[in-house]
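User: Good morning. I'm curious how calcium ion would be positioned relative to this chain. Could you predict the structure with it bound?
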Amino acid sequence: MKNQELAQIFYEIADFLEMEGIAFKPYAYQKAAISLDTLEEDVAEIYKRGGLKALEKIPGVGKSIAEKIKEYLKTGKIRYYQDLKKKMPVQIEELIAIEAVGPKTVKSLYESLKIKNIEDLEKAARSHKIRGLPGFQEKTEKNILQGIAFLKRSKGRFLLGEILPQVKEILGQLKTLKEVEQINVAGSVRRMKETIGDVDILVVSKKPEKVMDFFVSMPGIIKVWAKGPTRSSIRIYPHSKNFGVGIRQGFDIDLRVVAKKSYGSALQYFTGSKEHNIATRRLAIEKGLKLNEYGVFRDKKMIAGWREPGVYRAIGLSWIPPELRENQGEIEAVLRQVQGRPNGLPKIISYQDIKGDIHCHSDWDGGNNSIEEMAEAAITMGYEYLGITDHTKFLRIEQGLDEKRLTQQKKEIDKLNYKLPGREADSPEGCIPNKFRILQGAETNILNDGSIDIKDEALKKLDYAIAGIHSSFKMPKAKMTERIIRAMKNPYIKIISHPTGRILKKRDEYQCDFEKILRAAKAFGIVLEINSQPGRLDLNDQNIRRAKEMGIKMVINTDAHHISHLKFMELGIAQARRGWAEKNDIINTQPLDKLLKILK
Ligand code: DGT
Ligand code: CA
Ligand code: CA
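Assistant: Good morning! Here's the predicted structure, ligand included:
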């Protein structure tokens, strides 16, 4: 089908015309592009059926654009487009994908420096050829380089934590429309993958036009890629520029309207993953069935489709939580018989199982909130306890605490603990537990030789101590492994924070022999952290699964530096679920007394 190719060309023509500062025309081409993009019928068929006249009946397509479609169908080329490209031979879509660059910028950069693509642009910015051009400053150059770096690093993917709150908001708004009967997010967002390519939303509606009208006119939309009765696609600005990303660039959302009787199968299909789908489809075929986004069929007869659990049942499986749908053994596990359980799938930890957060920072080490504010926020979350674990002295920029300050902090925490318990419920959630407790820990530093930057006598007085690597990330593998294992041998260290040190889209894990680390953790009774920061999510799913298999306990923490970060817990739990972790694998699912015993 040539529809999308033509749409792409018309989008580009619109960009070129916009670059030339031409009024109205770009908009006409954009409209035609969107229309072609969403057209169900093959444009070639339309032409065959009714010639130019039929093409002109396509919404947004007038005489001149119809001629161009005809030309493309006959010759595979559009002269007008080629002339535009010849005049300005730039990779326009690629260049305007950079945050700091629009069509007009592309034009002046081409005219003054012959910049055609990202490589040219990067070279020019690096050699400071852009500053000094009329309308450009040193800062523009920096922004361009930052934009390019971001684009390269993320390859168009977003952190789940960056967009999840906004996705929930959009779902909430759509849900309020009376035309929306059912709605769910699908794709990688539903699977809670750590990074997201695009967002997929499914809707059941008898009046899809109304839903689509709303969808394509939400505030913050940068581009409407497509609008149609069954599928629309937009690019929208992310709300947050938090989490160290800094550059605002849009992310894409696809909205599909599906038939009510097929909603379950559509949800199953569009949740993916692709690998999981291939495996479920194969299973269906083995049973003489056909599985697709419309339903489960025996010959022509539809035997399941309106609800997702029914779809799984029809092909001989039970429902599988989306976080596990990666074809990493989940299907085999459902098919396996296990004594005392429905099947071999783990009963993964639920989003309600966490009783407290035990890696949080306060204003004592330069965090944003006081211990009391952090505690109040934890109480509002319904927690039983909160662990304050400020950085220690090696981290001077983070105002790390020394032994003396730790003692002073303990006094403050004792005072607050006296003040806090047994208060009347006054939060909007109304669920203040009556014996909330603040614990004092510390996030100490593992120095280069594996020693800890706080003396044992001081560590002993804490409720527990965490150790993490915050410096010299680039050690050789053997040395790094030894360094971490030595820290684990310290009898007062109970938890290793963000154990592999990776930062998504920024930094790889440090070199270390993770199997050796796991064996040491097992031997010394060390708890490994699942850090919930959107950019960390460290341990990752694979490592969580390995740790669980070895019987190593884990803890899900947010590493909050602000009360709002406590909400990251959901991301950490999702990661734990993706790593097949069960409630008992995670120590902060335990009530306070049990937790303290584990940390002893
Ligand atoms: P993303 O967007 O890259 O973060 O990842 P997904 O998983 O959301 O992928 P996406 O948006 O391309 O497609 C959504 C779902 O649709 C995907 O998880 C499974 C299904 N799907 C897409 N393409 C195919 C395909 O070629 N074969 C099968 N079996 N399923 C597909
Ligand atoms: Ca997707
Ligand atoms: Ca998609």
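The pocket of calcium ion (ligand 2) is lined by residues 187-188, 197-198, 200 (CB under 6 Å). The longest helix spans residues 3-19.
Let me know if you'd like a different ligand tried.
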